[in-house]
Every structure is written in structure tokens, then in C-alpha cells.
Input
Amino acid sequence: MMESNRGHLLPIYVLADESGSMSANIDDLNDGLRSLHQALLGEPMAAAKVRFSVLGFSDDVVERVRLVDLRSAGEFPRLTTRGMTSYRAAFEDLITRIPADVGSLKAEGYQVHRPAVFFFSDGLPNRGEDWQDAHRRLTDRSVTLGAPNIIACGIVEADAQTINAVATQPEFGFIVNEGVDVGAAIAKFCASLTKSVIASGRSLASSSPQLVVDKPEGFTVAIDVI
Amino acid sequence: MPPPPRPAPDLYPTPPPPEPSVYDWQHDEGFRPGPAQPQPAEVRLGDQWAPIVVDTPVQQFDPRPPTGLSYRPDTICDGWSTDMLDLRLASVRGYQHRYDGRPREDDAAAAWDRDSGTVLFAVADGVSDARQPHIGSQLACRTAVDEMSAQVRAGHCGVTDWTKVLSMVHWQLRAQAGRLLGRPQEAEVEETADLLATTLVAGAATPTAEGVAVGLLWVGDSGIWQIKHDHLYPMKGGKQAGADGLVSSAVRPLPYVPAEPGRFDFVLEPGTTLLVGTDGFGDPVGDGRGPVGRLFATRLREPVPPLGFAHLLDFSRETFDDDRTLVALWPRTPGMGGRR
Output
């Protein structure tokens, strides 16, 4: 019989916009993810409690890394720009992916905490596309097993209202402040993401676990700028 | 007849070899170590006391000293026996706290009432998000045990007013929070939670004609287990998975007092072991059927030395790095030294 408590894990998904308009910023995002990886290698106990996936989305979703233990991961495959910006494709992918991943981890004998999605996008979703219904189903805990918390980061000219609608709590939506160097802002958000991943990994063991999301430098909580 | 003559002794006898000297650190040059003595097979304490590994261990590292103004030991353990019960108690700092240089946030306390033979105990888990959780857990344990002791002494029987036990802990936490904030009166509940939030299990084990009557009270996700027939079983408390099967440790800790705190009374049968612990123990034990549950079921069938009890509790298994606190009780046959 498979053991039912091999350990406690937090699945984390980086859902990154790879649409053509990200071409000026995709290198910064790749550098930020590499820094995140390096930082977690220095925090082996926090890293042990996290399984990390990186997904690039445009017209569809490309899985770059799936449920990886960062302590044993090699270099991350790089995100590359392509196509349009379909939020619906991104959320539809998670609607099937997350329950499957949760089921897979549980089948391996792990206890699983509510997944977290870190969403990066530089603009608006495809015009006329109904992504809200997919987003609602994804985040409805009575519909999707493991409905995630979503932390949304808007860069360049992202619409604050949209970013805020993607985030599952008002304090989980962030927009790059006007006039801030975008590359530096992404690096800072990734640093903040690193802290968040480490703190969330740690808080699993506490009596009050929660997704710890600090406001990154150079960002404004999206609801403040609507 | 006189003995034959012998050779005369040496005029300048050869001096006996010098005795090995006692080492004097101020005269190191004159130190003469004695001949090597035969040694028993070398016992490396580092190996003997290395954590017991279950499956994949936590990565090895040297623990950092805890921050904080007052002394907070990494590990505490205790153990004693009454006519009717053997008690062991330990609280060990979690691997993550050792790595981060944070103090142990769990605590425990125990006492005995001589007249009734009642053993009183408490375990608590300070909530990490609070600012002084180790003070909260320590205060909760000691207040609960003091109040239970007072009730037992007053009535010469078990604890009679569990509501008062919780109330005393609640107000002690608020009073302490007020002192920490430099106020002459108690702090508000929210302020107290921000400073000293903690879970609690408090219990009393009273010898009766029918056996050892155990009464337990709990707030939060600490739990109660029993070892019987070589298996470890959860009895009450602990973490529960949500409807979607995901785990959550979200807890409403003291100083918040629930409308209906957990309460449980039962008789501890001979040949069983009662375990009361924080989630740092409960999480890896789970339903008791995994390797951690089997480890404790095997090792705690009978009382073990207190240091061995703490060593067992400090086992190493990846992702289980919270503080751990455990109290174990074994019923005895009457009379000091009586067998279980």
C-alpha cells in the first residue's frame, strides 16, 4: 500500500506570456527565473517542499518544466516569444493540468497544499476572447480540484483592471509603476517571487500556513491604479 | 646458617621510569604522556546520536543559534514515574528553525499531584506568524498545568472545570501581551494573537479503581494518539484534509477561545501508550501506518530513557521540519517499580 504522508508539497506554476509583444522583456523574465532557481538552491529545505512548473502561453500553452524539484533541476528551458495572447488557452490548460498534477502528487504519497500560479503578462488578452469563464472555473474551488491562488504581475502596458481580475485576491495583483525600468522591475518581481516561494515553503510547517506575497519594489498593487 | 653474601647494591641506582605526569597547561613542554592504554572499540558519539533517518533525511547542516533576548534551549526533555504512570516529555526545535536561527516555538509542561496521583500535562505550538510565539506556547502550557493542578488539589480528584482552564490561559496571554506592549492593562484579543498566538492540548490522567482516567482539552491542530497492539492510532485532533483533499494547517489559535473546544475523556488501558503532540509530530505520523508511525509504535511500546525519547522525536525526514513536541504516558501496575 502506498504511504499517504511522504511529505507536504506546494505546487507552484509560473504562467508567462510569450506573445510577440513580450520580445523586449522576455530576456529579463528568463534572467529572473534563473535567479529564482539559484536562490532556491541556497534554501534546500524550502525548495524540498515546492514542485515547480514553468508554462509559456500565447495562442496555446507550452510546458517548459513540469513539477520539478528545483534542487535537482538543471538549467530552465528559456521562454521564447511567439503568437498572440490567449488568456483563455492559458486558463483552460490549468483547468486540466492542476487536478492531474495534484492527483499525481497524491498518488506518489504526498500531502498537497493549494497550488499557486504566478502569472506574468505584458498586455491585454486577445480582443473579444471570453477568458473570464475559464478563469472562473479554474478558481472555483467547487469545480476545479486544487483551484489555485493566482498572483498576477502586469508589465509594460498591462491593463490594471485585467490584472486585478486575474488575481484571486486584490493584494495578489501587481502592475509595473509608470517610468520604472521594466527589466529591473521584472528582476525585482522575481526576487519577490523567490522570497514568496521560500516563505510559502516554510509556512507550510507552521500552524498558520498561507501564501506569502510581498509587494515587490517598483510595483503597485493593481487595485490602486484602476 | 646465614645466607650467602649478595652483591652490594648499586652506588648510584638507576632511577625508576618517571610516572606519567598530570597535564599542566602552563608547562606544556614538560608533559609526558603515559604509555597508550588498551582502549575499548571506539564509540563515536556523533554516530551514536545522529538523528534517526526515515526515508530521505533533511539535508545536514550546523544549526544556527536562536535569536531572541531570553535563553531558549534547542531541546528539552523530562521523564519520571509515579505509582501508576510513566511519563516522558520532549520538545525539539524543528530543522527549519535550526537552519534559520529561530527559537523553538513549541513547548510542554507536566506536573504531579501527590495526594490523588494525578499527572497533569500540556503541549503547545506557538503560531509562526505571531511575533513572540515561543512565549505564547510556554505561557499556555504552564498556565494550563498550574490551573489543572489547583483544581486537582482543591478537589482531590481530576480536573473539574475545563472552561476555567481555557479562560485562565486566555487571560494570561492577554496580560502578558499587555506587559510586552508596555501597557498597564491586558491587550486586546487581536493584539494578543498578533504577539502570542498558540495551540494547546492540556490533559489530566487520574488513577481510579477502573484504571487511569484521562481527560483532555484542545484548541488548534495538536493531536492525541495511542499505541496499542503494536500499532499507532490517531484518536483526536490533528490536521484534517479539506473536502477537495488538499491539506491546510489554517488554525484558530488561542487567545481565541472556540465556542466548543475539543474535549475527550477515556480510560487508558494497561498495555497501551498515550501520545499527545503538536503537528510537528502529527504531520509525519499521519494515520500512523507509514514508516514514522511504525517507528514510534515499535520504539515506544515501553518507557524509554528521557534522552532517548528526545532523540527519537528528533528523527530526520525530508519536508517534515517543524518543531516537534510529544508527551507519552504508560500506565503501570500499582507500586513504585511495578511493571507495566
